[in-house]
Amino acid sequence: MELTVHNTSDKALPFSIGFHPYFAASKLENVHFDINAATCSENAKGEQPAAPETITLTRKEGSADSIRLMTGVKSPMRLTDSGSGHTVEVAFDESVFTNGVLWQQDAETFVCMEPWNGWANSVNEAGRHIELAPGASKTFAWSITIG
Predict the structure, then answer these.
(1) Residue spans of beta strands (DSSP E) within the chain
(2) What's the CA angle centered on 73, arms 67 and 74, to 5 degrees?
(3) Pairing of the two strands 130-132 and 31-34
(4) What three-state secondary structure class fits 128?
(5) Cβ distance 138 to 130 under 8 Å?
(6) What is the mean pLDDT of each run of 10 residues along the chain (147 residues)?
(7) Cα 35 to Cα 4, 20, 132, distances in angstroms
(8) Is the CB of residue 50 less than 8 Å from the CB of residue 39?
(9) Rounded distance, CA 41 to CA 52, Å?
């Protein structure tokens, strides 16, 4: 899949891109992730801790969802569901996608594994988004392989 952003304005265009694919999962406990990232946390604010060798997605008690926000993500990100036997690979251009998100809503049978270049609301935060010059274009390419 490919998305190209064109700035047809005479002013710089602040923007951030992230894709939000959902993948069926038998149970969250059955999903194993194979992701190489520099940092991994539950919040994009403040100092970001180094990513563990194995990134997991577990529910915090009392929370309606589970999330992991990662920076310095290497392509591809993979998940394996031992309950269904399926694997999912999300591959992307690391020069334009530097972040990744894992997300799962409580009691749902899906997992999101998402390539991003910024964070939600980052266009409202200085230094946290891309600015595209007037007349410029930028293409964001990624793929999904399910086995």
Answers:
(1) 2-6, 13-15, 22-24, 31-34, 39-41, 65-71, 77-81, 87-92, 99-105, 110-116, 130-132, 137-146
(2) 135
(3) unpaired
(4) coil
(5) yes
(6) 95 90 92 96 83 88 86 96 97 93 86 88 72 94 96
(7) 26, 17, 29
(8) yes
(9) 10
